[in-house]
Amino acid sequence: MQDIEDLHQHALLQGSKSYVDPATGFTCFTELVHLQRGKCCGNQCRHCPYGWSNVPNPSIRRTPKVQSGDPGSIQLRLDELERNRQLQQQQPQVNGKSNGKKKKKGGTHGGRLTDKNVPYTGTGDKGTSQLLTGERRSKNDAAFEAMGTVDELCSVVGVAHAFLVERQSTSVDYGDLPEWLLQVMSRLFDAGSHIAKPVSNHHDDDDEDDDDDADTKFKADGVGGGMHMDHIEALEDWIDIMTESLPELRNFILPTGSVTAAQFHVCRTVCRRAERSVVPLVNDGVCDPNVMKYINRLSDFLFTAARWCNYCQNNPEIEYRRPERRDKQRVATARDLNKNGNNNNSNSPSS
Asked: Where is the stretch described as Disordered (predicted)?
């Protein structure tokens, strides 16, 4: 098997931002990505040029190639890598053939017209996609259904945020709600990452009778090690802050009022659908239960946000209306008259 460092050096000489680890099938970022980021992210990345300087455990350190957050030294290293890449391209051909591989197209390799990262790769053209574990599954798999719905939820929350920003320019004050929505969208990104990195729950046939709770208990394996309960409690605090100023809710309200409030009700219904898509994954033990809790609490937050928008815009809440008895009688009378009229017409002599 090819050495990892050789793979990494080959990727750098090709100007690539990633390569595939042959042992695991995982996609690994090259040093180039970390240099372009500009600082150590603290996640103990394999090819971190900063010596893991921001990893929380101070005992975990390596000799840095450049200083994290130092633009000067980072640019010098980037220039060095670019010179090495150009020298590689200038190497003479061997036996009439280039000693370099054909440049890949798409993703971090760039496109036909640009060397910058592009969103297309072509790897999903056959109806499959890759999880963060490196495993490829059909795009209609339950995990991708949940990820797609959470992504849709994030997008409709983005529309609600855009409405708030536009309204604030016309002197409507929504308090901290716009900032809270930015936090929500970021946490939905995290939720998608947890779903995209499911814990394996497969067992060997010989172990089917073993009662081992450790095998079935979820082990957080997404960004940050799982969805922290602090994020769920933050939603509850935000709900409390808005509710304190709102009139007491005593009846069902219709999902309308201002356009902004109506958009939040759309967000709420998509949120409920996202929750339904995550439940099977949690029941199977492959998704963080706190993700489901967060999305459940988020729907309550979005409902309260809808009420808050009507309140801030001085729009009255429209309550659910029961059908009145006289309305039923009026409908029944109209039906009877119509029926009698039809009977009379059928019995009338023809002219």
From this structure: 52-72, 85-134, 322-351
